Amino acid sequence: MSNEANQNKSAEELAAEIINEAEAQVEEQHEHAHEVISAEQEKINELELALAAAQATVADQKDSVIRAKAEVDNVRRRSAQDVDKARKFALEKFVGELLPVVDNLERAIAAFDKENDEHKAMLEGVELTLQSFLSTLEKFDVKAIDPQDQPFNPEHHQAMSMQEIEGVEPNTVIAVMQKGYELNGRLVRPAMVMVSKAKPVVDTQA
């Protein structure tokens, strides 16, 4: 704008033009700032999405690691249990084969005439053999089940017969025909027993 034109304008018009130009510059700067802020916000949003995805991936991987560790622990525990069971019960069949020998030695001792001196040395020999057998079995945690006068337990006893006995509570073991045995707490053979039974109920109204 020429100086002559400017001179012809009043002070108010010049002020208005200056204000308009200033407002235009402010508006332009505002739009530019808005564009910058929008671009920065978009970057922030992208970074937040990337962070959330990374956190989700870490959480999934952490969960996978925890599950894998738990599975390994379970496998290790089951393996240890299997090994322990195999160690404890590997002798079960062998013990089962030895028990008839123990039974026969006990029967032989019971059949000896204790009053006959001629049999005394032989009886002592059989008794020592039996004790040696029993000591060996005890070393491997083989225990006898001899429930004489004890309550009948179907988990460890096999009732061969029942008999009414005066003065004896029902379901009491009154005779042990053959001892039972367990290996490390597991039943190898039940005890064969005779069990007392209750008196029959008499109908007094008949």
Automatic annotation (TrEMBL):
It is found in: Cytoplasm. GO terms for molecular function: adenyl-nucleotide exchange factor activity; protein homodimerization activity; protein-folding chaperone binding; unfolded protein binding. Residues 1-78 form a coiled coil. It comes from the Bacteria. Its main location: cytoplasm. The keyword Cell cycle does not apply. GO terms for biological process: protein folding. GO terms for cellular component: cytosol. InterPro entries: GrpE (IPR000740), GrpE_CC (IPR013805), GrpE_head (IPR009012). CDD domains: GrpE (cd00446). Keywords: Chaperone, Coiled coil, Cytoplasm, Stress response. It holds the Pfam family GrpE. Homodimer. Belongs to the GrpE family. Participates actively in the response to hyperosmotic and heat shock by preventing the aggregation of stress-denatured proteins, in association with DnaK and GrpE. It is the nucleotide exchange factor for DnaK and may function as a thermosensor. Unfolded proteins bind initially to DnaJ; upon interaction with the DnaJ-bound protein, DnaK hydrolyzes its bound ATP, resulting in the formation of a stable complex. GrpE releases ADP from DnaK; ATP binding to DnaK triggers the release of the substrate protein, thus completing the reaction cycle. HAMAP family: GrpE (MF_01151). NCBIfam families: PRK14139.1 (NF010737), PRK14140.1 (NF010738), PRK14150.1 (NF010748). This is Protein GrpE. It comes from Thalassotalea marina.
